[in-house]
Structures are given as structure tokens and as C-alpha cells.
Amino acid sequence: MSIGSNIKSLREERKLTQEQIAEAMGVSFQAVSAWERDEYKPDVDKLIRLAEVLDVSISAIAEEKRKTFKTKEAIYNWEHMKTYVKTTAKNFKLYNTLKAVDYATEAHAGQKRKRSVVPYIYHPLILACHALSMDITEDEIIAACLLHDVVEDCGRRPEDLPVSDEIREIVTLLTHEKTTDDNRDEVMESYYKGILSNPKAALVKCLDRCNNMTTMSWGLSRDRIYRMIKETEEYYPALIKVIKSTPEYNSAAWLLNYQIESMLDIYKRLM
Description:
By secondary structure, the chain is an all-alpha fold. It has 15 helices and no strands.
């Protein structure tokens, strides 16, 4: 694909007209039309501004795309994962998890992952399956994986969760208040300080970050991706250290650190 084809494709993906792009750019719509027809290319300043308007990297516009790939918003079927979690919970007598999986499914009903049609429950189920795949079968951790967003995103109260007090405490630690540009640093510093006090909360949070990083390329704007990278670099090494300090989580700490660091490196190179 040429630069013009890239511009047109990116514009149409965002459901923007040539007139809207032109207005945001401070040029005529004829200029945008000419770019898309490859009659001439935008100069460097215009290319930089166009990348900001379309919320993509400059390379996404400027590089020819001779090959395209099919992408997936979801790798696993959420209903199959739910069945697997419930079956495993029965086998290991994880009674809190059995209650949490149905509660989380009901609480997140109708919600979707950002910019997708994937049911939101896919996300907490991925965390639970991720933990189980690392041979973590602690009731508190699997249940907290399933419930970690229900207070923050579903308006539920910690005291109403149908689980033990220890799990309610983990979920409370994983819940933070809404932030603004003015208070974000203060809120996040306090939030991560609380998580550091509890190795199980730290483990769930790292599982959460792994899954969120795998979807942020299509679920977040470039500004949000940049902020996610900076936040991960700032706070997650300490979380990994806390996880590693608990002997039974040593293997999980190694895997989580590898996954997070690998994805950070990939995103930095693509940004």
C-alpha cells in the first residue's frame, strides 16, 4: 500500500471524512484528497500533524505495506475458559472461585473490551487461566483475578462480594479512584504503594498488566500507550520484586517479568 492508500485506509477506519481531516490539519480537503490519490505527498510537518490527528505512528502512514496480516481480538473462547475455571475450581475445592466466576460474569454482563466486540468477562477469565497455567491454584488469587475489576468498573461494593475477607481486601487494593491530569501521579503512587503491601495483589496486578499490554495496540490511543509504558516502567519492577520474595511465586515472577519486559521492548520499538 502507498502512503496515499495508508492515509485513506486509516481515515476510513476512524470514520473520518476528508473535510474533517482537512479542518484538523488546517489544509483544504482537496489537499487531503490529493494525498490519498498519491498525486503528491504531505511534507514532513504535515506528516507529523497527520500522525497526531489519526493517532498513529508516522511509520504507519509513511511505510509501504506490501503484506497484511489477520489479527485476533480474542484468542480463546470466554465460555470455554469459564467452564475450565469452574471445573478446576471444583477439582481443587476453590469455593471462593466458584462463587466469584458466576458473580463476575453477571457483574460484567453487557460490557465490552475497549474498541472491540469482545465481552469484558474475557479479561478476568484470561487472568484466572494465566494464573492456573503457572500452577497457581490458590483460591484467593484465582477469585481475585475474576473479581479485580467489579468494584472499579461495575459499581459493586467490596463488602457485597460473595468471597472471603482476604479476597475483598485484595480487590480493594486493586481498585483505584478515577484520575484527572492534576491528581493522576498522586493517586497512582498511593495505589501502587498499597498493592506492594500484598504479594497476592501484586501477582494479580502483574497478570492484569500482561493482558492489558497485549490489547493496548488496538484498545488505546498513542498517548495512552505512551502513558502505559511509562507507568509500567515506573511501578512494575517493584511489584515483581514483591512477588519474587514469596518463594512459592518464584516461577511466576520470572515468567511475568519476562512477559512484561518483552512487551515493553516491542512497543518501544514500534512507537
